[in-house]
TrEMBL record:
Lineage: Bacteria, Pseudomonadati, Pseudomonadota, Betaproteobacteria, Burkholderiales
One GO process term, biological-process aspect: lysine biosynthetic process via diaminopimelate
Record flagged with keyword DNA-binding: no
Keyword terms, alphabetized: Aminotransferase, Transferase
Single GO term (MF): succinyldiaminopimelate transaminase activity
Protein name: Succinyldiaminopimelate transaminase
A Pfam family that the UniProt record links to this protein: Aminotran_1_2
Signal sequence bounds: none
Cofactor(s) essential for the protein: pyridoxal 5'-phosphate
Amino acid sequence: MTPVNPFLNKLQPYPFEKLKQLFADVKPNPEFKAISLGIGEPKHPTPALIKQALTAHLDGLASYPSTMGSEALRASISQWLARRYAIPALDPATQILPVNGSREALFALAQTVITPAAAPNGLPLVICPNPFYQIYEGAAYLAGAEPYFANADPARNFSPDYKSIPADVWSRVQLLYICSPGNPTGAVLTLEDWKELFELSDRYGFVIAADECYSEIYFKAEAPLGSLQAARALGRDSYPRLITLSSLSKRSNVPGMRSGFVAGDAEIIKKFLLYRTYHGSAMSPTIQSASVVAWDDEVHVQENRDKYIKKFAQVTPVLQEVLDVGLPDAGFYLWAKVDKLVSISDTEYAKRLYQEYNVTVLPGSYLARDAHGINPGQNRIRMALVAEVEECMEAATRIAAFTKKLASA
């Protein structure tokens, strides 16, 4: 028998694999061109200045990269954080670390901060929002911990009710993942939300991993509050047990660059750097040079945001006629209930929409787990409005026609 890590057996298929299985026996209507709102992959063009920076620094391919990243990149990230969140600049030498996209860092961070033998009364716990980005769950299992799901509450702007979690659960928690703006809900945490989480972290000693990769796509005049910004406002100037993660993928339409950063607690950053030195996750010098250009420029970010504002303003009212959906705080997803006009499951809705109108959406139950008696994604769908406005409007028109057809049947 081939030896294998037994924790791998705890991993569930990724949502897109489940979607592939759902559609396995379906032939989409050939009268319609395929439109996918299923995957959150930015489709707006990559800015020219970033492409130019990449080609201008191809000599970097001839050098081994440093795990710590260049001084120029760490300084650029520090300056961006200071501008964006109106906080004092973080120390580029001790509080910032470039990573190959937030996804790999979200996973690897769990391997750094979780101590399986240290939890009383069982395995350590990792608190995950529910619904959630599935990397959180996989990171927990493969670090020798168990995920504990905190259900999103629509009545609380999809924030979990952390007060309802028992003390004996909190005593086993070593890591808490939070996504703000949220995937898939688009909800942004308030200062009071952060105050509650920081107080719990102080009481029980767990690390907070703040996933903020959607922070630059928003629809109000005021930008979303960030975790570092909240910490400073609450007097937590050294960011104890807080690690913020962000990325250029959505902000700058460069998901293929795999460029992001972690920032915050210097002691955790120091240990994370040690882990990553062995893990072999250094960023290419060519990517680092282009990343400096991206973090230093806000013009392309505003242009990108303006596209999303225009798109959501046009698409959301069309869908509101047939689905229970509203404009999110931020991000590029619509998180909609499908049972406004029809009584149908999210999986059946997605399957029939694909079959009859050739539009792909992701069933909400695939993004959540059954926890505490419910699956908070049930009867919801996630729509990623990542394509240009014309394609998204065509998809919305088809979804409206499909739902009205179901309702009249």
